[in-house]
Every structure is written in structure tokens, then in C-alpha cells.
Amino acid sequence: MRRIFIIVALLSLVVTFLLGYYFSINWYVLFAAVLVVSFMGFYDMVQTKHSIRRIYPVFGRLRYVMEELRPKIYQYFVESDIDGRPLNRIDRSTIYQRAKQDNDTMPFGTQLDVYAPGYEWICHSIAPKGFNTLEHNPRVLFGNKDCKQPYDGSILNISAMSYGSLSSNAVEAMNGGAKIGGFAHNTGEGGLSDFHLKQGGDLIWQIGTGYFGCRDEQGNFSPGLFAKKAQIPNVKMIEIKISQGAKPGHGGILPAAKNTPEVAKIRHITPGITVESPPYHTAFSSPRELVQFIKHLRDLSGGKPIGFKLCIGHKSEFIAICKAMISQDTYPDFITVDGGEGGTGAAPQEFSNYVGAPLLDGLAFVEDVLCGLNIRHHIKIIASGKIMTGFHIARAAALGADACNCARAMMLAVGCIQALICNTNRCPTGVATQDPKLTKGLVVEDKRERVANFHKNTVKTFVELMGAAGLSGMQDITRSHVYRRVSLTAMFTFEEIFPSVKRGAFLDGKVPQKYNADFSFASEDRWGIHTVGSWSDDNTKEKVEIAQTASDGII
Asked: Which residues form the Glutamate synthase domain (predicted)?
């Protein structure tokens, strides 16, 4: 190919030059084009980084063009309505339709394989509730015995997405939608910006491991800066981010291209460099210190609801946090449970694909432990991780969620087309970019209405699902209302898959055998990491004996 290219390039240059010289100067335009392509090809042959380009000059570049086009071609011409990833076309279309107030009904029946393992459904009632008799704007009150400023929140809110990861226009549109619809907007760990405050919507300020917006010059937590911002009226709750589902155990990543001077000023960092948040908090180093930090933030904020967000990993570590809560009689006002299927703008693929418990497993576990220890009444649970429809809210509620957060659905409502280039600063819709040439395409006044519409119509559909099931509201749904098919001939309720726990069932030494090892390892004075215990219900006698030996200080 190299030899052929050299011969063709030289002949083309000679022929086009002679045509221009003897016949018409217009041929020189073609000569110039051939000259440019020839230089590209000769450069390809001498460069050393790309083998394909060295072997196939110019033509080898088509590989990168096709790689760029592949996701778009696949999304628009190849994938079926139910095959798209991370979000399939049916769900994406539903979000767009509800955001635009278009017809969101479906013709000709479901495209899902209702006999395939994993298919889920909610049980309807022969005596459904009339939709007009139900509360179409269900709310949940956040705030326990120590909270001085409880927050009356929606059951569906905007999940954590930082300014910097998202554009200023996207942040403004989301917050404007939250203002119109009366729901909350989580800032993400990137800190409070003017764009979060401009529209006047309710905010959940997230504090991550980088303490952006409330950090000193060394990157440590600054009580003074936190207190000043936490008392802003728009800030209704504060969330400590311990981990997130898309990259648990890995700090947040802000690519250098998105770290503009404006972003850097808000975060108190150096602009123009890739910023990786630490994977751990420096403000606390044990479950006991985490609970003390919660109390500290509540005092600094003037008594606003304080909670934390995590994706479940080692079960013993969450149990240790619960032990610390009980011993100090101090509880978070809410816990956000994120699932391993959660989204992010940038994460190593190993973390996105293979780290962290999925939402349903983590959610059921958190609900069971809080109920078993009889501390559930102090704490509201928020579910986060691929919440897109009313059914997803109902499914999470059946496992114990009091409310849900969604991120990618809100991105779609604000204009995202799932181009899958969030980490490149080249988002074509101006949502996940800091490039002003792209962000100007996102009109805040239009997109904030779409965010509010999506929220209203999704909550409405959830309420209608409750009515169809014969339930008055979110508080009535149980694990027995949702079914999952596990084979062609077998289906189980969530109650059978995730058996619920009665309040106080773990007290007085009545910890179930499957949790024995994890309770034995859990210590409020350290983050205990161990290798026994699993997500299955089958904890062997040997594992329990090992855990008991370890708790006695023998190993």
C-alpha cells in the first residue's frame, strides 16, 4: 500500500499540475487538494505511533472516522428499541416525549420479552383507586429529631451532577426546572456555583472528598467556608458523598478541558489541569468520626438535614456506621443509596462495569439493616441508579426507598442525545461540555420547562401505577407487589427474593446467620475490610466461625 500510494500521489500531482499549466488554472484547485492529501499520506508513512496509518497512508485515517461515527450509526440505524445501552430507545423516547409534552403512549403492545428471565412487573388490583382521588404531588419530609430545618421534598429529584461536568446552561436549566416543579437539584461534588443559585430552585449541596467550595488551600475541609454557604436559603439539605455507583472507591474526575478558570474558582483549584478527587475523606477516618462529622455539619448549617450517599461494598462497613449511629444517638436525616449501574461523565471502565453492588441489592440491604436495628424511623432512604420511569420509582419504593434521584433522565430532558462523549468536552448538545460554541445551543428558558414537564409527568405516571395496584401512595407499596421472572416457569415476588426484616429483628443478639460475619467484623472505630460474607444468603458455618474468631482478637 505504501508503494502504491507513492506512485498514485506522484502521478496525481504531475497530472493535475500539467492540466493547470496547459489548459486552465482552475485545475490548480485540484492540484492543491492532491498536494494536501499527499502530504498527509507522506506524514502517515513517517510517523511512528499508528501502525495502520504507516501501512495504509491516508486510508488508515478512515478507521478513526468510523470509530467516531460508530455509536451514532448504531444508535440511529442498527439498535432496536429495547437494545440501546446504557438507556434503551424506549426509555429515551419516553423521557423526550414527557419533557416535550408529546404523546407518550405506546401502540400495539410491549416489545419486551415477558417470558425472559429478569422481566419485572407490578401487581395490579381488581379494585384500583381512582386517579383523581390520589395525591398527584406526593412529598416526603426530611428531618429527624436533631434537625431544626426539615425539608418537604418531592419523591423524585435531580441526582448529583456537578457544574464543570455539566455546562452552565445545563445546570441553570435543571435548577430552573426544579424551581418550576417544586423538587430538589443536587449540586454534585463540584460545589455551589452562581448557576445553581440563579434560577432559585431548591438545592441539595453535595460535599465530596475534594471538599470543593468548602476547602482550604491544602484541600482540607473548611468549617468557615462550609457554614457560610450552607446557610444560603436555597440550600435545603447537605449530602456527604462517600461513594457513587459509577465509580465507587474512586474519586471524581474533572478532565483538564473542562477545568476552566471559572470552574476552578468555584472549586478553589488550579485551572487547566485534570483534577482527581481523593478516593477517601480526610475529615473523618472511621464510622464513629463520620457520625461526628454529620453532627458537626448539622450544627454549622443551622440544623438543616444532613445525609450521606454511598454505593454498598463491604456490608460490614455499613453495619459499622449503624453501630456508630446507635452508640452516639446521632443519625443522618437521609441516606442516598447509589447502584453500580449509576452514571458518570468519566470513570475507568473497570469501575463502571465491575465495582459496587447494584441498586436493588444495596437498597434492600440498607433497608433491612436499618429496620433490623430499629433505627429506620430516624432516616429517610433515597434511591439512585437508572431511575427513569414511574415503574422504576415504584420498584425502588417496594424495596424501601422514600424518594428517588435521577441524573441521566434529567440530562435527556434537558437535551442530551446519549452521544457517549461526555468525557471529551465535545458534547454536541451543550449539556456535558464547557465549550461556549456548544453550550450556546442549549436555551435555558426552553429546557427548564422540559425538565419540569418530565418530572411532573413521571410522578403522575407513578401515582397512576399506585392507583392501579389499589394503593393510596408510596408508603403502601411492599415487596410483595413487584414480581420478577427467573425462568420460563418460575417467578418470584421481591419479598421472596429479598425477604423483608421486621423492625428490631436484629436486636438482643438475634442477627440472622447470613449477617453474622459482617456484624462480627463491624467496628465503629475502624473501616473493617474482610473476605468473608457474600451477597448470597448462604453463609457457611466456617465463615461464621472465622468471623467470631476474628472478633475475639485471635486473628
From this structure: 156-471
- Bridge partners of 235, per DSSP, are 203
Lowest mean pLDDT among 146-155, 207-216, 325-334, 490-499: 207-216
Kindly state the helix (H) or strand (E) to which residue 396 belongs, with its residue range: helix 390-398
Cβ contacts of 337 within 8 Å, gap of 6 or more: 309, 310, 311, 312, 359, 362, 363, 366, 381, 382, 383, 384, 385, 401
Is residue 486 packed enough to be buried (19+ CB in 10 Å), middle (13-18) or exposed (0-12)? middle
One domain, residues 45 and 148: no
SS3 533: coil
Are the C-beta atoms of 9 and 37 separated by less than 8 Å? yes
Whole-model pTM?
Answer: 0.85
Each residue of 58-94: pLDDT tens digit? Answer: 988 888 787 777 767 766 666 666 666 688 888 888 9
Grid coordinates belonging to 333: 436525616
Which residue has cell 420547562? 449
Into how many domains does the chain fold?
A: 3
For residue 313, is it within any domain? yes
Q: Which of 49, 64, 79 is the last residue of a domain?
A: 64
**Residue 135 maps to which CATH number?**
3.20.20.70
| 283 and 153 in a common domain | yes
The one-letter amino acid at 290:
L
Report residue 119 as a C-alpha cell. 422481566
Mean pLDDT, the chain, integer:
89
> Mind listing the pLDDT tens digit for each residue in 422-474?
888 888 899 999 899 999 999 999 999 999 999 999 999 999 999 999 999 99
Q: Are 390 and 473 in contact (CB under 8 A)?
A: no
